[in-house]
Amino acid sequence: MSELEHKDFPISIEDIMHTAYLQYSLSVNVGRAIPDVRDGLKPVNRRILYAMKQLNLTKSHAYTKSAKVVGEVIGKYHPHGDSSIYDAMVRLAQDFSMREPLIDGQGNFGSIDGDSAAAYRYTECRMERLSEEMLADIDKDTVDMMPTFDESAEEPVVLPARFPQLLVNGTTGIGVGMATSIPPHNLAEVINATIALLDDPKATVDDLMEHLPGPDLPTGAIIRGRYSIRQFYLTGRGSIKMRARAEIIEKDNREQIIVTEIPYAVNKEMMVKRIAELVNEKKIVGISGLRDESSKRTGIRIVVEIKRGAMATVVLNQLYAHTQMETAFGCTMLVVDHNRPRVMNLPQVLQAYLDHRLEVITRRTRFDLKKAEARAHILQGLLIAIANIDEVVRLIRESRTKQEAADRLCERFGFSTIQVNAILEMRLHQLTALAMEDVQNEYDEICKRIDYYKALLASREMRLGVIREELIQVRDKYATPRRTEIVGDDSDLNIADLIPRHSCVITVSNTGYIKRVPADTYKTQHRGGKGIIGMETKEEDYVEHLFNADSHDLIFFFTDKGFMYWLNVYEIPEGSRISKGKAIVNMIKVEPGEKIKTMLTVKREDFDNPNKFIVMATRSGYIKKTPLDAFRNLRRTGIRALVIEEDDDLIAADVSENGNEVLLSSAQGMACRFEQCDEQIRPMGRTARGVTGMRFKLADDYLVSMEVIHEHIDELEAEADGEEDAVEQAGEDNEEEIAFGSGPQLLVVSDGGMGKRSFVSTYRKTNRGAKGVVSIKLRQNEQVVTALQIGDSDELLLTTERGQLVRIPVHEIRLTGRAAKGVRIMNLNDGDRITGVAKLVEVEAELNRNNAAAAGQEPPAAETELPPEPPTADENE
C-alpha cells in the first residue's frame, strides 16, 4: 500500500495486531496443538502415520531408521523443525505415555525417568498393528484429501480411525489461549461405551459409565474418586486424583513400603529425588532407606525402608501428601470439531466419532459399489464373448488392426469400449471350460455384492450395524486388561443424598438476610394480622421475599450487572421461626459494586424441560429469554446470564414458559404487554444481550419493572376493550371511577405519592418492541417508581428518600381504569419522594395460598377489614 493510500485509509496498528493475532491463534490451535475429535490426532501425528503408510512401514515390514520417516514427513507433509516431528513420533512409541502405542520403536525411545530418546539416526521404527486400523480403507475415498504445503502431493484431512483413538490414548496440547488434556482409557471399555451409545443415542453419562468407569492409565496406579470422573465426562472439564500403588510389607522385623505403580505423567526419578529431599529436610521422618530397584524386566519397584518404631501407614500418608505419589490430572476435553475448538463431554465426543465412522462407511460403500459395478460390466462383456466365441474369433481374425477388431465387435454385439478392450486382452487359457465357469461364478458373486452395497447405502441401520461389527472386531483383537484401579473418595459423597427431601420456607429481609425454616414450623401457627411473623427484624426491616421450596431445589441470585450466582436450598442456614438468618453476601461471592436484583427458585428436574426459560429485562428496555438448560453447568464464582452495556442494568428476571405474558413498565407511565413465545422473543444463549422489549417515546425514559403474568387472561380482552370505550365516552374527569376486568392486578406507584391498581386485562396486548399504552397519568416532574402484581390481601411498605416509611394494605387503594391518575397513597414532605415500594410477605398467609394452589384448591379468604369508603375528591389530584 502506498503512502497516499495510507493517508486516505488510516489503519490502527492495534486493529492490525488484533486481526493478525486472532488468525495466528486459530492457525496454531486448529493446525497444530488441538486434536481432531474424529481421529483424536494432531496434524503432526496424523502426518507421521500417513507417511509411514506411504512408505509401507507396517508391522510385517522390517524396522526402518527413524531418520527416514522424519525426512519423509518434513519433505512432503510437515514443514516444521525435525525435533518437533521426532518428539511426536517418540511419544507415539512410548508405552508409559500411550495406553496403546501406535508406533513400534526399536532402540532408546526415552524412559519414565525423563531420559530423552536417542537421536533419530540411531533408532528404528515401524507401525503397530493398531495404527494400521487407524488407516484402514484410506485408499477407498473414505476421507477428504487436501494438498500438501507445496501442493506436490495430497494428505488426508482426517484418518478413517476404526476405533475412538482420542479417548484410548488421550492427548495433551497447549495452544494460544487454550489447552487440552485428555487422559488415556482402556480400549475395550471405550468401544463398549461407543456401542452402548450406538444402541441408545439418548444414553446419559451415567449409562455410559457402566461401560467406561474411568481413565485407564499406561502406568497403572490408582484413581481416587468417581465423582470427579463423572464431572469430567459430564462437562468436559475436571480434575482426577491419581495415587501411586504402594504395599506395606514386613522384612527382617522391619516394615517396607514397596511402590510398584506411579501416577500418569510423573517423572519417577524426580519423584524419588523429592522423597530424599524431604527426608533430609526432616519434613518426613521415619524413613531409614530409599532405593529405586526398577528395571525393564521387573517394572517399577521403589523400596522405602521404615525405621524401627515408626509406622509405615503414617509415612505412606506423608508421602502421598508431600510428593507426586499423589497428584491431580487436570482434564479438559478440548477438541477441534468442524474446524472450531470446543470443549465437549463424553457423549458428544463419542457421537462425533460415530458420525465420522458413518460417513467413512458410506463413502467406502460407494467406492466399493462403483468398483464392483465396473467389474460386473467387464464380466458381462466376457460372458457374451465366451458364449459367442466362434464369431468373436472370426471377427478378430478378419480384422487388419486392433482398432478395426474393436469397432466390428462393438457393432456386432454392442460392447462398450471398456468391454471390448477386456475381450481383446483375453488369453487363450481363458477359453477353457473351467475358466468360463470361473467367470460366471465371479459375475454371480459380484452381483450379490452389488445388491448388498445398494442395500447398505439405502439403510442407515445397516451401516450402523457395520460400525458395530467393526468395533467389536477391533475390541476382540486388541483388548487388554485394565491397569488402573478406581476407588471411592470423600468427593463421591453427595451431600444432597444425606439430606432428606422436605418442604421448607426461604425468607429474605430487605437488608439481605436469608434463612431456611421447615414448612411444618408454621402449620400450627395463627395468622399474625398486620404484624410480620417469620423473622426477627429491626423496626425498619421486613420480609421482602418468600420462597416455598424443596430442600433439594436451587436458588438463583441475579445481579444488576447480569451475573447469576446460586445456592442449594439445603445450604441456606436453617433457623428458627423468629431468627434473623445469615447475610447473603457472606454465602455467595458477589463482585464489589454488584447488587442482587432478584432471586428465583429452580427445581433440578426443570432443567430437562425445554419449555422452561429465564426471562430477563434491563433498564434500557432490552429483554432476553434463555433456556433454563443453559444454566445447568453451575460455577461457584457465578456465570454470566446476559451481556449488559456500560450504561445499563438488569432490573428483573423470572422463570417463564411459552404461553405466559410479559408486562414491562417504564418510568414515564407507559406499559407494554405481550405474549412470551418464540415468535416474540426467540431463545438466546447466556452471553447474548437480548432484543428490544419496549421502545420509549421520551429520550429520558427507562424500564422500572418487568412482571411475568403466569395466569391465562386472553378471555378478558373483550372486557378491556369495553373499558377503553367507556373511558373515552365518560371523559377524563370520570376515569377514576371506571374499573372493568378481572384476574391479575397491577399496582403502579409514582415517586410523587400517587398510586393506582387496575386489572392486567385492561392493558391492551401489543407486540414486543412497542411503545405500549398509558399505565398512569403522571403529574409534572413525576416518575413511576415500580409496577407490581398484587392481590387484594397484600400489604405494601413505602419508603422515601428521607427515610419516611408507611405501611398500607392494598385493598385501600381503589381499583381504577388503566389510564387513571390514581389516588394519593402517601403524603410527602416538601422535596421528598418515594424511592421504594415493597410487597410485604406474611408467612402464614403466603404459605396457606401456596399450599392451596399446590393442592388445586381455592386459596383461603384473606382476613382483612372491609374496604374504606371511596376517597373524597381532594384525594384525586
Write the layout of secondary structure elements.
Elements: H1 3-8, H2 13-33, H3 43-54, E1 64-65, H4 66-76, H5 82-93, E2 103-106, E3 124-127, H6 129-134, E4 145-147, E5 154-156, H7 165-169, E6 171-174, E7 179-182, H8 187-199, H9 205-209, E8 222-224, H10 226-235, E9 237-243, E10 245-251, E11 254-261, H11 268-280, E12 287-292, E13 302-306, H12 312-322, E14 326-332, E15 334-337, E16 340-343, H13 346-387, H14 389-397, H15 402-413, H16 417-424, H17 433-458, H18 460-478, E17 485-487, H19 495-498, E18 503-509, E19 513-518, E20 543-550, E21 554-559, E22 563-568, E23 582-583, E24 596-602, E25 612-618, E26 622-627, E27 639-640, E28 650-657, E29 661-666, E30 670-675, E31 691-692, E32 703-709, H20 717-730, E33 745-750, E34 754-759, E35 773-774, E36 784-790, E37 795-800, E38 805-809, E39 823-824, E40 834-840, H21 843-854
Parallel strand pairs: 8-17
Antiparallel strand pairs: 1-3, 2-3, 4-5, 6-7, 8-9, 9-14, 10-11, 11-13, 12-13, 15-16, 18-19, 18-20, 19-23, 21-22, 21-24, 22-27, 25-26, 25-28, 26-31, 29-30, 29-32, 30-35, 33-34, 33-36, 34-39, 37-38, 37-40
